[in-house]
Amino acid sequence: MIQHKILLLTSNVGSLFENKGGCRKYWLSQITKEIILNCPSFVALHLQESGGKNYKLNAKEMPVLVDELQKRLASEGYVVSRCFLDIQCELIEEFTALSSLFFIHESAVKLVQQFNFKQRKFIPIVDSKYSQLILTSGLNRSGFVRKEKFSRDFWPSFRFGRKGFLHTRWKFDERIFDLINIHLFHDESNLNLLENPTLYSNNRKNAFNYVLQKFEKFNGGTIEGASNLFVFGDFNFRLDFASFVKKLTRQTNDRQILLCPPIVEQQTNSRSSTTSTSDLSTLDEEEISLLEQSTNSKNQFLSSSTDPSASSFRN
User: How far is residue 139's CA from residue 83's CA, in Å, rounded to a whole number?
Assistant: First the structure.
């Protein structure tokens, strides 16, 4: 009996479009290597920030990247692929920059069906006339995905970004599973985070719960049978930094650290027994004057101390 494995991967690919050379080649090789190493029959790869920060310029490069990955995996037996790329950045109210890629090994093609949300039924992959598909437009009109961008109502004061989710449903060897690609809100300001550690985490929680509620509503109206839900993507998880530092230092003692004097224009050399002979200190004119006064006073004290007539204890 053949043992079939399913591999779920997620990757934020924003940085691939900042460094288009070695970084992209390395990413392709590592993804391919991981898939070959695990030998899955079905691969789901969820991507976030397709096109990077400058997505208006780089969005067109996503199909090129995906096509290269398709070619590499096809040579390893993954002859069928379904790739859904949300790169229509001109659709501001819909654009999420999420991409969901699926690769099916030739040994499992007859076992896989994809759900059509509009027709409310599973479509066998073998019945499709396309072995390799890259869909880059009209995702919301496609029956094979449910995609939504988080509404401005989640956080009216927050800069409207590309966060949202993309949902696909599959049947593999008579088992149904739902895959949701998700990208939650990041921390907009570290200063605001220090003042209110739960400010951003609560918003992420609300968005995540919204996705789960949407799925429960959808799943409650289905008649296909029991499903297994997998949510994976970029959750933008952050530590509560203030609480984290407090916990780390709970058994330590406070120590006061004096800051160095401000950097000024005039410089002078100084030496000490604990430093090298060429250490350079930076002092301002007022500090130099105080230093000279201190040195003169010390010299006067030393001179008077070596004079027997200046001693308080005389024979």
Answer: 11
In this predicted model, what pLDDT tens digit does every residue of 72-106 receive, in sequence order? 999 999 999 999 999 999 998 899 999 999 999 99
Q: 0.90 exceeded by the pTM?
A: no
CB under 8 Å, gap of 24 or more: what pairs does 263-266 form?
none
Helix spans in 39-104 (H): 55-58, 62-74
Q: What is the three-class DSSP state of 36?
A: helix
Question: Which domains can be identified in the chain, with CATH numbers?
Answer: 6-242 (3.60.10)
Token pair for residue 3?
């043992």
Rounded distance between C-alpha atoms, residue 76 and residue 78, angstroms: 6
- If 0-12 CB within 10 Å is exposed, 13-18 middle and 19+ buried, where does residue 69 land? buried
Mean pLDDT value of segment 16-21 = 80
Q: Which residue from 179, 231, 186, 238 is spatially nearest to 208, judged by alpha carbons?
A: 231
